[in-house]
Amino acid sequence: MAPSMESQGQDQLEGSINNGNASVNTIPVALTDEVPQKSRITVVGSGNWGSVAAKLIASNTLKINSFHDEVRMWVFEETLPSGEKLSEVINRTNENVKYLPGIKLPKNVVADPDLEDAVKDANMLVFVTPHQFMEGICKRLVGKIRKDAVAISLIKGMEVKREGPCMISTLISEILGTSCCVLMGANIANEIAVEKFSEATVGYRENKEIAEKWVRLFNTPYFMVSAVQDVEGVELCGTLKNVVALAAGFVDGMEMGNNTKAAIMRIGLREMKAFSKLLFPSVKDNTFFESCGVADLITTCLGGRNRRCADAFARNGGKRSFDELEAEMLQGQKLQGVSTAKEVYEVLRHRGWLELFPLFATVHEICSGRLAPSAIVEYTEHSARLPLLESPAHLS
Description:
Blueprint: H1 5-18, E1 39-44, H2 48-61, E2 67-74, H3 86-93, E3 109-112, H4 115-119, E4 124-127, H5 134-141, E5 150-153, E6 158-161, E7 164-167, H6 168-176, E8 180-184, H7 189-193, E9 198-203, H8 208-218, E10 223-228, H9 231-253, H10 258-279, H11 291-303, H12 305-315, H13 322-329, H14 336-351, H15 358-367
Parallel strand pairs: 1-2, 1-4, 2-3, 4-5, 5-8, 9-10
Antiparallel strand pairs: 6-7, 8-9
Helix pairs in contact: 5-6, 9-10, 9-11, 9-12, 9-14, 9-15, 11-12, 12-13, 14-15
C-alpha cells in the first residue's frame, strides 16, 4: 500500500532532522502566514471634488500600511490655453490648475488620462464624476477591473430609466458586478481643500468591514467620516438636496429673506424624506440627521454651486439659461441640480405624485421656463396635501 502524502511529508522532515539539516525553511511555505496585499486606489474623476478626494485619500495612503502609497486619478484629458495637456500639468506641478487651482496635491497622486490603465491595478475604485456620464464610464470598464475590486460613489444624482429611477451606486454594481458604498455629506470641496473641518457619511449595505475600510481611507483630523447601513438613504440625501438648493437660490435671487429661505429648506427636507421612503421603504429616519442629510442640505443651500447659479437665474428673471450660467460661473464644473430636478420630476409625473411634492415639481418647472422664479413661494396653495407625505400608505 502506497504511503499517504502526510506520511511522506513526515518522512522527509524526519530525514532532514536526521541529516542535521533541519531549519525553519524545511516547513512548507503554505504553513507560513501570508503577507496581506496592500489595497490600490484609483479615483475615477478629477474635477473639483474628485481632486479634493484624491488629496484626502493620498494623505492617508502614505500613513496607513494597508494601502499602497500611489493613488491613481483618471483625468478626462483637456488641452489648456497654454497648449499643455491637463494630466501632464497635474503630474508636473502637483496641482489641478483648472479645477482646483492654488491647492497642491500630494506627490503620490498620479494623473492618468487612460481610463483602462488607471483602473487596471486598483481593487478600490472611487467614482466622482458628473452623474450623467457614469453609465458610459461603467460600460467602458466592463471586464477591465480586478475581480476583487470594490467601489464607492461620491456622485450626487440618479438615472431615470423606463423601469424607474436607478441610483448611481446600483448602476455601478449592476454594470461592473462589484459592491458599491456611497459617501455624501456637507462637503463644499474648496473648504475641504484648505482643510477646514467638515463631516461625511459612508452608506453601506451589508459588509460593515468594507465600510470601515472606506472610513479609514477618507477620515482625517479635519474630515470626520462615519458609516451607516443605508445606501439608498445616504445617496438620496446627497442627490435631492441639490433640488432644494435651487429653490433656496431662487429665494435669494428674489431677495425674499431668511424666513422664506428657512421655510423652503424645511419643506425641502420634508419632501426629501418622503420621496426617499416612498422609493425605498428601507430608508432610515436617522439618516436624515447625519452629515449626508440635514447638514448637507444646510451647507448647499447656503454656499453651493446650485444655490449660486439659481440666485443668478432669478436675478436675471429667468432670461439667461442654466447652460449659459453654468459655463460662465463654474469654470467647467457641472451643475447637478437642474438635471436632477428633471429626473425627479419624471419620477413624480410617471407615478402620479406631482401634487404631493409641490416644491420639487415647482423647481423643475422654473428651471424649464414654464414658471417664473417667483413661483417658488406659491407652493403654499398645495399645503393641505402635505400631511399625505407623512404616510406613504396613502399612495399605495
